[in-house]
Amino acid sequence: MKSTKMVAKKRVLVVDDEDDIRELLDLTLAKMGLVADCAASLTDARRLLEKNSYQLCLTDMRLPDGEGLSLVRIIGEQYPTLPVAVITAHGSAENAVSALKAGAFDYLAKPVALDQLRALIRGALNLPGAVAAGQEHGTTLLLGQSAPITEVRTLIGRISRSQAPVHITGESGSGKELVARSIHGQGVRQEGPFVPVNCGAIPESLMESEFFGYRKGAFTGADSEREGFFQAARGGTLFLDEVADLPLSMQVKLLRAIQEKRVRRIGSTTEENVDVRIISATHQNLRQLVEAGRFRQDLLFRLNVIELRLPALRECVEDVPLLARAILARLAGAHAVTAPELTAQAIDALQRYAFPGNVRELENILERALALMAGTCIDVSDLNLAPAPMKADIPAGQLPLQEFLDSQERQAILDALQKTRYNQTAAARLLGVTFRSLRYRLDRLGLKE
């Protein structure tokens, strides 16, 4: 007789004080082969969490004895590997964003759409386990061992466990798309598509059709039905690069699509649900654009649930040799040649260079050097580094470039510390860097004491 092994079903905690909602969720979960434990209050939910082990929690935002937001925080503190999704009232954008900021995996709006519910459940139950600091699960690697890059890698590991929108800031060429791909590659959507969109490269007249698609015959030239970016990214991640370049008219439509998780193709009379995660990026300051009336505040509110700032390459000087060798190996492999070595003088010159174009500029410099190098190694002369611009009040040649940059950075930090009465947390916030990054800079510049 063959022995049969019992497979324990995955359990889901459902928390809602409305009988019909609990019944709907219970039936949906049962049809998916899952076991649901239902609670009508925050107190009941906490009791069940203490007794049982769950793979997912679905909770309403409003409960008789408290807020669903409290449950999100409790789970985040006491059960950090348990994904929790919230159910919000229709059109309650503030509640949804507050829940995502508190650590919720995702949200659903009432009335609950069953296809969105099933997609959320499937996504949450495939959620990877906790990611160790610095560990990469995707094929996209973020190289470097400096404190700022190590911190970015740690944040990517945390962010990838959520479905919350992410906004990546950083200078041009600092690797914003690379980071977006890393978040996608480590998260629950890693098997889905990653669709990058350069918002500044789309003519305004074509934006709506490019983002949302169109029906056949919707306009002259629409000879067939076509999907937009949202449909192409279904089940995956939509990366909106240079989102600040979107015109205001398109910002309104994008806001609604993100908020409602539905889009309408041009020429269609009905909307369709779209299950995508939004990651946006820009080198511009969106808050300043809001103040100038060029970017909608409510869209910023939706996009910037989690903000991730990328350091400039000049902030990660110790990573330059590692990055340079990795880039050279890739470039040489593409041309089927042996990767040349960098002389010690070349490495020193690269570490002293300010890299206004960041990693993208480093790649361009090395690609040119590989093509034009005179000997078997890349030397300073092969790099052909552009001379650094000097400020008018600093005579050329008075300070080496790195000393000049360090002096400017040191003064900015001292000014911030003085303004905040030497409160390092407040100073870091004033400078727009993390507390850990500020501590690293204080140590590097000899200001720790």
Summarize the structure.
With 449 residues, the chain is of the alpha/beta class. It has helices at 19-31, 42-51, 68-78, 93-102, 114-125, 147-159, 176-186, 207-212, 229-232, 248-260, 286-291, 297-303, 320-334, 344-352, 358-372, 380-383, 401-419, 424-431, 435-444, and strands spanning 11-15, 35-39, 56-60, 62-63, 66-67, 84-88, 106-109, 166-169, 194-198, 237-241, 262-263, 272-273, 277-282, 306-309, 341-342, 377-378.
What does this structure look like?
The chain is of the alpha/beta class. It folds into four domains: 11-125, 3-Layer(aba) Sandwich (Rossmann fold), CATH 3.40.50.2300; 147-309, 3-Layer(aba) Sandwich (Rossmann fold); 317-383, Helicase, Ruva Protein, domain 3; 387-449, Orthogonal Bundle (Arc Repressor Mutant, subunit A). The protein has helices at 19-31, 42-51, 68-78, 93-102, 114-125, 147-159, 176-186, 207-212, 229-232, 248-260, 286-291, 297-303, 320-334, 344-352, 358-372, 380-383, 401-419, 424-431, 435-444; strands at 11-15, 35-39, 56-60, 62-63, 66-67, 84-88, 106-109, 166-169, 194-198, 237-241, 262-263, 272-273, 277-282, 306-309, 341-342, 377-378. Strands 2-1-3-6-7 form a five-stranded parallel sheet, sandwiched between helices. A five-stranded parallel sheet has the order 9-10-13-8-14. A hairpin with an 8-residue loop joins strand 11 (262-263) and strand 12 (272-273). Helix 18 crosses helix 19. The longest helix has 19 residues, at 401-419. It is globular, with a radius of gyration of 25 Å. The model is unreliable at 1-7, 129-139 and 389-396 (pLDDT under 50).
